[in-house]
Give the backbone structure.
Amino acid sequence: MLARLSQFLEARTSGSRCTIDGQPFSLPTAAAKLRRYGVLKIRQLLDPGLISAVGAAARDQYEERDARVAAGECLSPPQRQSHLRRTLALHGITTGGRPATEALDCQAIRALAGSHLGGLPRLDPNTYVRALVPGPQIQALPFHQDQSILQTPLLNVWIPLAECGVDAPGLEVVVTDKRDLLAMAGPPDHEVPVERVRIDERLVVETFGPAALWRPSLRPGDALVFAGTTVHRSHVTPAMTKPRLSVEMRLVPS
Ligand SMILES: O=C(O)CCC(=O)C(=O)O
């Protein structure tokens, strides 16, 4: 199946500038690296113009929701949670008359997810835009594994909508070939799922060693793709002053 997908993809991506480690994207290489390291940085996967349009549509939605809250509108508990955590459902965003989920859908990622998950992938509803705004209210996420929340193998396609990792918050990921789920340290009844599955930083460093922690910088159009078992968290330093919007698309087996 991989060979057929690979041929198809070469036909579809010929002329595209999408690269991995400086080499043109190839499905077998991407699949092998993902298997080996649990995470993959893909450069220029998507058109920066599209990324900027999705960012503008998301900012409009944040503004509109913030205005409704400021005007005293009462939100439902899930809406309130999403407002506090600064997330938006990607399914609710459109750009150029198209749903953002469709606009960001790309063949290279579908093929990679198909090979990683062993079947046709589908987009899980837990697919969001997230805003991290440096300052006391920043909604940074602790170390966790997405699979502990979703309880299914998955591929997270993480797409920053602005430059990130240096002046704006990025992501910190563990690079490893280990795929075990680690012990969780959060209160099991916490209302925020990621807080229930948080992993102690000390456990992460003891298990993988400090050299396994990677904090890539990314530009609009780039993506970080990682497995549901890959340990990761928001990467924020005191020097970061710029806000960051990002999309997290979760592909699961259909
Ligand atoms: O965007 C972030 O800072 C965290 C995202 C994350 O943890 C996730 O996509 O699972």
Observations:
- DSSP finds nine helices and 14 strands in the chain.
- The two ends are 17 Å apart (CA to CA).
- The mean pLDDT is 94.
- The pocket of 2-oxoglutaric acid is lined by residues 130, 132, 141, 146, 156, 158, 171, 232, 234, 246, 248 (CB under 6 Å).
